[in-house]
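MODEL INPUT / OUTPUT PAIR
PAIR INDEX: 1
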Amino acid sequence: MSTRAVPPPPNEPPPTPVGAFVADVSHGTARLGRVSRSQAGKGYVRPPGGGAEWVASPENLRAPTEGEWSSIRILTTRVPPALVLSADHELRPRPEPVPGCTPCSYLVRWFDHYMRRGPQHDESAAVDCVVEIRNHPHDPPKMRITKP
């Protein structure tokens, strides 16, 4: 048995190829997307930047205009991840405790604890430690100090 491609009936539009960018005009305004699959005569379209797909009839799909292509290029261009998320770009010096001050020495240890990488990393708490050290003498203390 030979397999031949059967052309669609003359009154039906040809199916849109999977992976093609299209504009869905079924609701009056153009909704941009990429055909992710075709099934039972319907096209399943997903937004260019990703998201939930929707079902569109082939007669409501058209090729994007030049202005719509600009939007598609913007939505599909990957943005490189930020390498440094620190507010101070790691320029904050390690605070120096006041010699002989027990609260200051604890605060420096807490500062080191909060500035480490990992789940305990908390720059806001580290800044709190720096502020408390700058407020020496600690009378009255602004932070409750416990052993780390």
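PAIR INDEX: 2
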Amino acid sequence: MSASSDTASGTGTGTATHAGAATGTDTGTGTAVEGAAGDGARTGGRRPPLILRNRAFAAVWLGQVLTQAAVRMFQVGVSWWIVAYAVDDSRGLASGLFMAACTLPAVALAPVVAGAVARFAHRSILRTAALLAGAASCALALWAHGGGLPLASVYAAALALATCQAFFDPCLTTSVPELVDDADIETATGFELSTQSLAGLGGALLGALTVDRAGVAGLAAGCAAAYLGAAVLVASARFRTGAPDPAAAGGPAPSVPRPRPLRRILGELPYVRRILICFTAANLFTTAVFVVIPLYTRSVLGGGGATVALLEASLGAGALIGAFTGTRVPGRPTVAGAYCLGLMALALALPGLVTHRLAVAGCLAVAGWCAGAVSVRFVALFQRLVPTADKPGFFAVMQAVLGASLPVASLVFGVAGDFLPPQTLCLVQGIGLAPAACALALLGARTPAPPAADPDAAPEAGTDEDAATDATTDTATGAGRAAGPVGGSR
């Protein structure tokens, strides 16, 4: 289910405001989206791609690509630097602490991010987050260039960059209605979510290679250039102002269903609650792959940055393909999800028995595909089962709950990596996934219909047709971010 996640990235926090479109305005930004629609649409000709006919969206999208690539490049690069260059003893603990620092802000700051996105102008949030991340990267690059870079400073930089990204990602998703016309919202959303995975894949390829050739100084300098470039692009884009309030204009106030507490929502949807429990348990083992890959590369494969890039790219490419093809997996979501988790368990365990580099890359590609396919199927199912008024709060908390397993898994497997060989960690991952797959399979015996009180729900839920629809049309889901194990990109 996507962080993308990433990252474990705070995807769900932006949902609190997206259901009601944009709430923030930016002083002096203009009232229209620049280049929103071309004349070709009126003349009956084929419309050009959205990023070519809407310069504002194109600029913000390029900024998103740069920030996503930078954060992934930093995470992969520093993970490899810790294992290969910086630490002689307790490499597992050091890399686990680093990954925990990269994933904790998106979970811990979820309520703060949601409040900020609802209160402040979205362009200001995006620009400030990119500028602060660029400043942090510049400071780290200068420190590393001077020599004697302490490990604590890298952890501090990781916290700073993850915090900025925790604000940037959900705010960007929420800002889509301010950048495009209403008819283009779904296209823009699908484009934005899918390209995040591509940007993360590119960053993963560059991270370890950059460290091998230019060290942390070169890595941080590259991240700084990407973040500052993103800030310039966002600042150049024109955002629509917020829609006028009908009540303030003298008209009747719209009737908006009042969201209910999450405890009550899940109390009425025990089926959804059990699924979330299954995936929270599964994430404790799937997300450990980000700690295991550098340890496995150095201790088992004896490779360098190019090998890390190959393994990371295999995982990311598989997840990206799975996100696009997951709706074609036959069967009910619970049954298909159980099979995918079972296959993923096998793919993660096999490197513990087979240590050929290409074979390991193939296993990670299969594991990534399973993660992407599961994410799309179950987010689409939740869209059907959860009442419309409850979706913003549900998806925000869902991402926080699933993402909470990332720092825990990073620390647990990081510490274990100092006492157990990486092959054993791979076997533990596969064995740990098996109970979650079995529990999910037991849930597939009966698929409930959505609550009758929800007028927007489909008449039947859980079928293959239901799961295949709206997989990427609701910006609250973050399904397209499935660039890593179940639960999103890191």
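PAIR 2 NOTE: Residues 1-44, 243-249, 448-485 have pLDDT under 50 and may be disordered.
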